[in-house]
Every structure is written in C-alpha cells, then in structure tokens.
Amino acid sequence: MTAPLIALHDVRRSFTLGGAAVDALRGVSLDVAAGEYVAVVGPSGCGKSTLLNVVGAVDRPTSGIVSIDGRDVATLGDRAATEFRLRRVGFVFQRFYLMPMLSARENVELPMAEAGLARAARRERARELLAYVGLAAREGHRPAQLSGGEQQRVAIARALANRPALVLADEPTGELDARTGAEIIALFQRLNDDGTTIVVVTHDERLASAARRVVHMQDGLVVDDGRSGRDS
Amino acid sequence: MRLTLALASLLRHRARTTLAVLGVAVSAALLLDMVMLATGMRESFRELLLTSGFQLRVTPKGTLPFDTEATIDHAGDVLAALRADARIDRVSAIAGGQLHVLATPQRHAANEGAPLTTTFALGVDPAVQGDYELQRGADITAPDRLVASETFLRVANVRVGDTLDVAASFDPQLRTYGGRRRLVVSGVARFLFAPAADPVVAVPLAELQAMRGDEGRDRVSAFMARVRDDAAVEPVRRDIERTIPRVTAVSTTTALVQVERRLSYFRQLAFILGAVSLAIGFLLVATLVTVSVNERVGEIAVLRAVGVSRRHVVEQIVAEGLALSVTGAALGLALGVVTARYLNTILSDFPGLPAAFAFFVFRAGAAWRALGLLVLAGVVAGVYPAWRAASLPISTTLREEAVG
Amino acid sequence: MHLWLSALLAAVLAQPPAPRTIAIDERLAADAGLHVGDRVVLAARAGAPGDTVVVAAVTRQPADPADVARGEHHVRLHLDHLQRLAGYENRVDRFAVATRGAGAEQRALAAIGRAAFGFRAYRSAEVAAGTSRTFEVVRRFHRAIGVITIVASAAFLLCILLLKVEERRRDVAALRLMGISRRTVVAALVLEAALVALLGSALGAALGWVGAIVINAHYRGVYRTPLAFAVVTPGVVVLAVSLSLGLGAVAGLLAATRLARTPPLSLFGR
C-alpha cells in the first residue's frame, strides 16, 4: 500500500479573534491518497478553510504533523513554504483573485515566471492550459472582460501552471450561478480523471457529491472521514 | 513579470499615477533648480573672476573692486612694486570714471543742457587688460581710441568709426566740461564685469587719467594681478597687503567668500527648498505606494499563496516606487532646466550684476546626484509599505478580504 | 588784577582745542571694541595723519534693506569736520529738504529746479522707488518660487485626495445603493476635503508664523540688522488660506465627481 499524499496527524490550530481564543482545528487526523478527489464539508466556522490553509502551507498549525508527499510542511520556514506552494500546490479561491491588470494568459504565466520558466516556454504552457479549460480564444482578455465562470477557469489554469501534486480549492463555485458552477464541477472531474489529486472545501452539495470522497467536519474535528462505508 | 506587474499596477490608475508623476516631476525640477542655485553662483563668479587668468585684485583698503569711489593714489609706485615681484606674471591697472558724450556725428548736446549721454568708462592698458573681450573692430592702441559695449552704441546712437566729443567731468553749476577729448569708436567689446543694460566704454588708462586732471593723476581704481603659480597666490596676497598697507589684496577665494556671504541668503534658501522638494517627492511616492498596497492586500496575499516569495513581492512594489521616481525625475530634469532659465532671467535683473554672471549653472554631475537622491528617496519610500504587504498573514488576509 | 586776568587769558588761549566728537554705529562699536568716550584718530586715507576725535555716541542704524548685505560701518561727523578731513571744502553730496504745509513739497521742487542749474530735486519716494530695484527682483524671484511650490503642492494635494476619496469607494457605493443622490455624495466629500484643507491651512499659518520668527532671528543675527526679513501679514494669511481652501475644494470635487460617476456595483468590485 502506497503512502498517502496528504497525511495529517492530530493537527491543531488556535488563534485569537477579537480578544477571544478560537480553536479552529482541535486535533484533525486525515489521510488523502494520490489521485483522490476529496470534498470537505461542514457548517460555517467548522474549520474547513483553516484545514485547507494548513494543508497548503498557507497557515502553520499550532501543533501536529502535516505531511505532504512525505514532507512535514508544518515545520517549514517562510521561504521553504513559499517554494512548496509554488511547485507542489495549486490554489483555487472562491473569489478567483486574478490580477486585474494582467490578461488571462499572463495570469496563468504568473506562477511559472516565479518558478523561473523561460518566457517562450511559459507562454506555450499557458496557452495549453487555457485551451484545456476551454478559454483558448480569451487569452488576451483581462478579468474584467470575462464572466465569473471564465475567471474561475483561468484561476484553475493558473493553479495547474507548475504541474502541482495537489490542487486545493476553497469554495470554487461560491460566487457562481448553477450553470456556471456545473461547468467548474465538470472541470474538476476532468482534472481528477487526468490524475490530479483534488481537495475541495465547499457548501455546494453538487460539488460535494461529484467528489469521490466526502469528509465531514464539525467544531474543528473530522466527524466522518468519508472512508467508512465506501470502497477504499 | 515583476516589472510587468509593477507597471500594470501603476497604469491601472492612470489619473493618480499621472498626478504622482507630475508632483514628483515638479519636486525634481525644484530640487534641481536649488542645486543649480546653490552651486551656480559660486561657480559662475569663480569662472568670471578667472576669465582672463587674474587671480588677485588689489583695491583701496577695505573695499571690493569698484564697490566705492575710492582710488589708489601713487598708482605708479604700486604698479612698480607689483611688477617687481617675480611671482607675478602680469599686472593690469584699471581706472574707473564717468565719460560724458557731448557730440556725435548725428547729434550735439544743447548749449545749455546736460550731455547727450553719460557712460561708465574704464581706463585700461589694452596689452594686459582683463576687463573686456573685443568682438569686432580694433582695440584702443592709440590715445584717441575708444572701445564700447553694444548698449553704449545703441544708447548713443553711434557706430564703429564715429568720432565722439567727450568730457570726463561736468560742473552743473558753471556748466563747464573738463577733460574734453575727441575719441574715435574703434571697436565693440563685451565687458565681462559690467551689467548688460549699462553702457560702458574703455579708453587708454593714461588718457582717462589725464582727462580727469587732478582727480585722476596717478590714481587707479584697482589692479588685477596674474600669479605664475596658483600655489603662490595666497603668499603673494599676504605680501602685497604687508608691503603696501593702503591697499587690500583680494584673491579669487577671498572674493568668492565675500560674495557668498552677501548672497548667502540664496544659498540657504536653495538648501531649504531643496530639502523640502526631496521631502515632498518622498512623501508623494510613499503615500501613493502605501495606499496602492492597502487596496491590493487581497491580491498580494494571493500572490503569496500561489508561491510568489516575499522578496519578489517587495521587489515588485519597490519597482512601482522606482518607476514613479524615475519617470518624475526624467520629466523634472527637462522642467528644471526650463524653470532655471526663467528664474535666472529674473535674478539677472539685479542692478550692478555683471552680464556674464549666472545664478543657475547646470553641472551634469551635481544634477545627476540630486536626481539620483530623489530616485533613491522614491525607492526607500516604497520599501516599508512593500515589506508590510509582504509580511501579511496570508490566511487571515484572505479571510478578511473574503469577508470584506 | 589786570596781570592776573592776562595770565588767565593766556593760559586759556594756550590750551589745545577740545577734540571734535563723532557718533559711530553699533556694528563698528562691537567690531572695534569702542565705547562712548573713547578717543580715535580719523583720517580720510589709510596711513594719512588725521584728527583725534572722541566717540560721543553709539547709534543704531535704521533698518535699511539696501545696507543689509554690505556689512558696512557708519560714522557720523559734523559737516564742516568731514568737509575739512575729506578735502571737500565747500561741497556737499546732497541736501535733504523737509517742507511744511500742504503743497509746499511741489512748490519747493519747482523752486529748486529753477534756482539751481544742473541740479535736480527728487521726492524721497522717487528715490526709494529707484533704489528698490534689488528688492523688486527678489520679490519677483520669491513669487516665481512660490508659484512652483504651489504647483507641486497642488499636484500632491490632488493625488492624495484622489487616493483618500477612492479608499472610501465602498462607503460611496453603499450610499448610492441606498438612494443617496450623486450631488449629496459629492457635496459631502467636497465639504470633507474643504474642512481638511482649512485645518491644514490653520496649521500651515501657525507654522509660517513660527517660521517667520525663526527666519528673522537667524538673519538678524547673520546680518546684524533690525530689519524684518519675513513678515506674516493678514493679507498673506488670507491668500494662503484662500489658495489652500480653493485647491482642496477643487481637488475634492474632481475626485468625488469621478467616484460618484462610477456605477455603485463597480465600486464594490463586482
């Protein structure tokens, strides 16, 4: 049996919010295998987004082990964590967060430029990725000229820029209407079919049901890791 | 890509970027002008004094050249003493006085009236003089010759070749003229130390002294001396004052110090305004970059989230400040040169100022240093907001931006 | 008795005359370390024999701008004494004439013009105007610098106000969505900008007043003169405040109008 891509062991995360101590994660242990498509669901404030941030080395846990592809990212310094995010993880956000002054292609090129890829090579790959998400014809458009769904697809293309081992998505359909959301859900499906490991945090039932495994969280804990009653 | 992002960020808000660049440009222009003013007066005056290579001026005790009507008597003895000093290469004696023009080929003074025009006259030895540069015609190589400025020719309505009836003194009560001569305008010259608007002529020294009678006999207004070795200027100056106690010897350095003291107000003004310009440029860039960063914290957090390093975020934001400063400085250079010319024409109206004197002198080295300082200020102005932005906690910022 | 009187007369006649007196200015007194009662030798030329005189008074020069940078020393003598010392004989450089009564000035000018050939009488104001060219140049220079500074400040102010108003775009968007008119929103922002400008002007006027004190103290010390170099007059304050308020209001209006024209949802970033 191969080692899981993501292995969380007793991960805790506390912070102070408005003077009060908040335990966002209260001892989460979870494994995600390579190639899995996992949806993390739960009520607002249950710690889903915090969990995603910890996995993506955007946030550091107060305690516990966060192992990604055999590497404990919880102990990484800022520089190493940044490098990790650049090369090993692709983020997709609810609000897209594209650079408004860059074109679609330039937005996709951004992580590749940071990774030091030559201009011609990153331009080529950016075009490939935009074609993959169905936006080949819109490469020169700025985000303001794209619909919400199109912007999210550019964001997904950007997340794939450096061929990450893992794509993390935080409410990727949160700002989209049903039809557009369905397109994004289909795109995630396709990504996973092509071998990308995906962890998505969502309130969207359709997105959750499209995932192959659903992890339920409540009050900072995993109450159902989605493996019970399913074929592993 | 960082430069692309920086420029794209600036172009995103064209109005504010344009205003910021304009503000930096005007600050840069003012800074450049003040640098030119602070160094220009000194440089211009020094160049003026050294035009003919004379490093020393010898004047009546306690005066500056032509500052008063005082004269040095027994001028022949003083001249001999100066020439006897082997360290001195050349000595030029100058007498100053007024010359009244009584008649020209075109006009005559009314019998009972004042002269046609009155001009300042320099009595010089043309072989060694350092007061004018002949532009056309012939020098005053004969006793009945006169060299004039363009202003004199215009005011007196005469040309080269005209014979003038002149006098060195006029008694308004008795209405009589003393020291009359008929002099021929032999040439036109640019008088280095005279204001452009004043009519000036030069005649042979002995002639002017004779025309002035007792008042001019063996008297001069000043001497100029050229010392062979620059290193010997100060010792020669001290020796002159020691051996001839009734004169003051002023070296170029001393003259510069005295003129600077009189014009110290402008130097201090230049320093203060220059500092204020630098501060304004710094504040402008700092404010613009800070506000721009505050507006984009979400974007910056996303950049950090997708793997852009802190250093590269800082570099991108600092690049914005740099772009503003460099563009503003470049525009400011052009603007500063134009405004310096305008300000110089205002200050050149000072009465009694030599035409060749300039308040604002452009020196490339000083200009680059000043503008470089402004650009550096712009870079530094961007560093703090950039560092703050890059140090934002990514997850908290993303959450706050999502809520906001 | 007669003998005694003759001897007294002879003794008086034999005594040397009392030295003449002069008045010197404060600067000379300080530089040469002279005091009232000191005896000095006065001569027309350095090295020439002169008169021994007594310093009878130390005077303060009036604040004459033309003298400020020259650093000269002034000595006052009795007219006949200076004429004799300088070899002037029965000559003077000028007369100063005070007239009495309305119209006397004009009559005096005409009379002097008729009576003294080759001489001209000037009103003091004419002389002042003629010798003020230096200060006219300095005034124009200061005005030019002032204009440049105002342009830089205007660009700065406009830029800052643009930024500050744009920072409030979500507030503006919310107000507009609530139904508040563009005019009300713009008026509120302009009023805010004007108030900030007014406060800034008050601070600036206070700083200017303090600055003037510092400038005068400094240059009075440098040039050793009671002259006032910087004067903050009510007119200057009014001009500065008006300019500042005007610039602030215009800058606020431009920035606010720009923002108010933007559709509210765009201001929310949607």
CATH-scheme architecture of chain A: 3-Layer(aba) Sandwich
Strand order of the largest sheet of chain C: 2-3-1-4
- CA(first)-CA(last) distance of chain C: 127 Å
CATH class of chain A: Alpha Beta
CATH fold-level name of chain A: Rossmann fold
Output the CATH homologous superfamily of chain A: P-loop containing nucleotide triphosphate hydrolases
Instruction: Write the H/E string of chain C, N to C.
Output: HEHEEEHHHHHHHH
Indicate the structural class of chain A.
alpha/beta
Give an account of the 3D structure.
The complex is a heterotrimer of chains A (232), B (404) and C (270). Chain A is an alpha/beta fold and 232 residues long. Chain A has helices at residues 48-55, 78-88, 104-114, 119-132, 148-159, 178-193, 205-210; strands at 6-17, 20-32, 37-41, 63-68, 71-72, 89-92, 166-170, 197-201, 213-218, 221-224. Chain A has a single domain, classed as P-loop containing nucleotide triphosphate hydrolases (Rossmann fold), CATH 3.40.50.300. Chain A has seven helices and ten strands. In chain A, a hairpin with a 2-residue loop joins strand 4 (63-68) and strand 5. In chain A, helix 3 (104-114) packs parallel to helix 5 (148-159). Chain A is globular, with a radius of gyration of 17 Å. Chain A starts with 5 loop residues before the first strand and ends in an 8-residue tail after the last strand. The model of chain A has no long low-confidence stretch (mean pLDDT 90). Chain B is of the alpha+beta class. Chain B has two domains: 2-48 and 262-403, no CATH class; 62-245, no CATH class. Chain B has twelve helices and twelve strands. Chain B is elongated and about 100 Å long. The model of chain B has no long low-confidence stretch (mean pLDDT 87). Chain C is of the alpha+beta class and 270 residues long. Chain C folds into two domains: 15-128, no CATH class; 132-267, no CATH class. The longest helix of chain C is centred in the C-terminal third of the chain and has 42 residues, at 182-223. Chains in contact: A-B, B-C.
